[in-house]
Every structure is written in structure tokens, then in C-alpha cells.
Amino acid sequence: MIAPEKWYEYQREYQRYGFDMKPQPEERRTRTGSRKKTRKVAAPFGNGRKAAFSAVLAAGLAMIMLIIITAYSADMRFEINQTIRDNNALTGEIENLQVKIYTANNVNYIEKKAKSDLGMVSPKEKSRVYIAADDIPEQGFADMLKEKAYN
After folding, report:
1. Distance between CA atoms of 120 and 90, rounded to whole angstroms?
2. Between the CA of residue 53 and those of 37, 42, 45, what are the distances in Å?
3. pLDDT digits (tens, 9 = 90+) for 6-51
């Protein structure tokens, strides 16, 4: 059986520590006559008010810079998106022009234009002339045509 003093101490410790029941470390007592001297550590900005003001000022400047950078990046993103839109429009125009060039260089289109606008007709079988490799003149075909045209 536990003595009543021990039991009360046990209950006090149980209420204080719970299930662990770890005892407190013993406090070292120093002499009553000697006291440790404490030094005040100087704050980097002086007293507490100056430090708090400086911290708030620095945080405010940081927030203002953050807002300015965010606005600048939003402006840059807008310009980039505008450039991308313009580029896509120009790409569409280039594709349309390439289709027109292909159409204008197509043999069927050229033949149709020649017949409708210029009144040309396709040659008949009797009018066609075929040139073989042996028929090419030595001076050149263009020179031969010039001689015949100017003579």
C-alpha cells in the first residue's frame, strides 16, 4: 500500500503530466546574493517603433513593386497576344495568295483566260508542229525566229 503523501503526490504528477509521468528536471538554485547581469541587445534599427515602421515600409515598397511588375507583365502578355493574332491573320492572307498564285499558274486557267479574254483557239491537228531533238537549230531557236521575223 502507498502512503497517503505519496498518493497525493502521484495524483498531482498525473494531473500535470498525464500518462507519461515524467518528472520535471531539477532547477538549479544559485546563491541569492549573486545575480547575473543582463545586457540589452541593441536592435538594428534602434527602438521597437523604428524597427516596426521600417518593416512596414519595406513590406509596403515590396508590395508596390509586386503590383508594378504584375501590371508590366500583363501589358507585355497583351502585346504578345496581339502580335500572335496579327501573325495568324497574315498567315491566312499568305495562304489565300498562294492559292491565287497556284490558280493563276494552272494550265487550265491560262487556257481558259486565253480563249475567253484574248479570243485564242486551240490548234487543229493539221496546224500542230512537233519539234524533235534533231530539229533544234545550231544557233538557237530564238535566233532563227529573229532572222525569219526581220527578213
Report:
1. 38
2. 31, 16, 10
3. 877 777 777 776 655 555 556 666 666 555 666 665 545 556 788 8
